[in-house]
Amino acid sequence: MAVATESWRQIGTRVDVVVNGGEIAHAVEAVHATIAAADHAYSRFREDSELSIVNRSPGRRVAISQTFASALEVALSAAAATDGLVDPSVGRAVRLTGYDRDFRLMHLDDGRPVPVRFESVPGWQQIRLDPVARTVRVPSGVEIDLDSTGKALIVDEAARAAAAILPANAGVLVSIGGDIRVVGRPPRGGWRIQLSEDSDAPSRRDVPAVAIRDGALATSSTTVRRWRRGGHILHHLIDPRTGQPCDGPLRTATVVAPDCVTANAAAACAIVLGEAAAAWLEARSLPARLVANDGSVAYVSGWPVDLPSETPLAA
Prior knowledge:
Elements: E1 3-10, E2 13-20, H1 24-42, H2 50-55, E3 62-63, H3 66-81, H4 91-96, E4 128-130, E5 135-137, H5 150-164, E6 171-176, E7 179-184, E8 191-194, E9 208-212, E10 215-221, E11 226-229, E12 232-235, E13 238-239, E14 244-245, E15 250-257, H6 260-273, H7 277-283, E16 288-292, E17 297-300, E18 307-308
Antiparallel strand pairs: 1-2, 2-6, 3-5, 4-5, 6-7, 7-10, 8-9, 9-18, 10-15, 11-12, 13-14, 15-16, 16-17
């Protein structure tokens, strides 16, 4: 079966679609549409998104779409499953660190001695979602951010939408910002994925790769979305226990799971947990590759030892 690839930028990041059999144009159209609908529902960087409207309406019960309601359900479930270490109420904490716009538009080092404010995270239990009536209410001081689950949910839904219009014996890989879901028949040898910390990194033979046949792979890292404010080096991964960017021993966590939401939440949770990450992942039988700040690598729950990348189908 022929393998075709198409890449572009959308919602501020790189999108890759790889099709093993079938017409890639149809798959790309489905992925485009899925991303656009989710962006309108829960982008933190659009004034007209439902998420922005809710964040501007503290104390009010706001009617929302099924798309946003489903995304909030997923985020709250992930918060419960991680004991609040992946928390959608971190929006204000993220904004106060300076990450208040699309990353491409940020001044990564403005040179000014600007003080950085850190506040405690109010907690995901403060978000009052009624999934039946499709309404949500947040109290004053609570801002929603779906960074740890929202993009992963888009990946899962986009991959399913693309697979639904391809032939039954075809397969598809969807990668958004390096978070990956595969559905259907893989190429011979599986879907080869380069293990880069930066999803925009070019394919290289000397970078480790892994092959998967089904499910999802997601990576969280403190090394990519970084900036400086008031003498502080900051990044986008917030520890809900402190309201500050994570400052533990891990710089990168890559996790394989049945779906991208689970993989992404687990990877983010691993960064927050630091030294306790391996045991947490082992207890949940989630294969993972953990990279420490000193560059050392730990393989968890059956993850294979690094092999050189050949020509991966997704970077």
